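quick q for whoever's on today - can somebody do inverse folding on this one?? i tried earlier but teh output was garbage lol. tokens:
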């Protein structure tokens, strides 16, 4: 039996800042799926094709619908355990992973640098091998991408990047699910990044073109994205026929953009640079003046936590802001990542049109 769901966007609710999915979903027998991600690492989205990333978003929507909308219990990870290594503090990454893994029947184990000998009294190689013998996967939030690469090389279980200095792939999955729910399709959207050339921007650059999305990014001089990431992003844009614009002018990046995106200007570990960075980022605050040059259907994203100098209250708390649905979707997307890397589950929803 097929179950049909149509959630219509209520204009009054939208004005009050409540955003809902606008899509027809059909739930029935599991659909045949050609994408198989079981056993893979998720270190960066550059290692995944467009179809593979779309599959993770499809699975995210499936889990969200079945668990949140239908109230089903899906113990897909029963009997499995997850090691969670955190060198940096976290709200959304920790809560989404810990609660999501438990909701699927698994057992998450939270570990800080005070709990384990990560690269101090024990080498990363030894830690990877020990964790491989005791857990089914590891999510690591670390300072250096190279540490993730070492863990992945030495571990026999999937390693997931919970954030590094170079990439933050699980955040971008949540961003894309949020945009998919709001716009019903990602192809043809123009993403306007205004801020630092950091791990969030890098992850967008490694994936947006694979969906047919255009990217216009403004960063201050001296804070541009990594050169090797830029070179690969230019290749992706050429292969997929999309536009990639890198500029130092925030209004140029915002011009015609469907989605205005920013992030913290001062990441963890950069506190000593605060005064210098605040000065360099003058004029980069997202305001209604920024939005005036954007597309008429513009929305706003920020991965949080947010500081007022990055985006003013008028934009951040406006009906156009999707930051809180974006935050919730961290849970559904990380659950999909875990399920796709650890099981053979296939989504039961009709595949969305990306």
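ok took a stab at it. sequence:
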């Amino acid at each position: 039996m097929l179950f049909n769901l149509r959630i219509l966007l209520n204009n009054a609710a939208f004005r009050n800042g409540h955003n809902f999915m606008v899509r027809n979903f059909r739930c029935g027998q599991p659909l045949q799926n050609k994408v198989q991600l079981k056993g893979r690492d998720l270190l960066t989205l550059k290692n995944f094709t467009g179809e593979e990333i779309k599959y993770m978003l499809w699975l995210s929507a499936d889990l969200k619908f079945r668990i949140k909308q239908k109230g089903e219990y899906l113990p897909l990870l029963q009997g499995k355990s997850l090691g969670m290594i955190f060198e940096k503090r976290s709200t959304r990454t920790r809560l989404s992973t810990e609660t999501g893994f438990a909701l699927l029947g698994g057992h998450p184990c939270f570990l800080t640098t005070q709990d384990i000998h990560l690269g101090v009294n024990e080498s990363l190689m030894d830690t990877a091998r020990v964790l491989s013998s005791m857990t089914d996967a590891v999510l690591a939030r670390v300072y250096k991408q190279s540490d993730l690469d070492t863990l992945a090389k030495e571990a026999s279980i999937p390693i997931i990047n919970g954030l590094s200095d170079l990439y933050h792939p699980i955040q971008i999955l949540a961003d894309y699910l949020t945009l998919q729910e709001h716009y019903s399709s990602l192809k043809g959207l123009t993403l306007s990044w205004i801020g630092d050339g950091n791990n969030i921007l890098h992850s967008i650059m490694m994936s947006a073109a694979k969906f047919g999305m255009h990217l216009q990014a403004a960063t201050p001089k001296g804070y541009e994205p990594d050169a090797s990431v830029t070179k690969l992003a230019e290749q992706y844009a050429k292969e997929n026929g999309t536009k990639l614009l890198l500029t130092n002018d925030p209004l140029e990046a915002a011009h015609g953009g469907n989605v205005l995106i920013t992030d913290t200007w001062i990441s963890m570990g950069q506190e000593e640079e605060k005064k210098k960075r605040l000065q360099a980022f003058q004029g980069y605050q997202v305001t209604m003046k920024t939005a005036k040059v954007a597309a008429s259907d513009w929305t706003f994203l920020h991965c949080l936590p947010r500081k007022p100098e990055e985006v003013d209250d008028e934009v951040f708390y406006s009906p156009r802001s999707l930051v809180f649905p974006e935050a919730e979707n961290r849970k559904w997307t990380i659950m999909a990542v875990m399920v796709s890397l650890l099981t053979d589950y296939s989504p039961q929803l009709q595949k969305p049109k990306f």
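fwiw The chain has 13 helices and eleven strands. also The first strand starts at residue 3 and ends at 6. so keep that in mind when u check it
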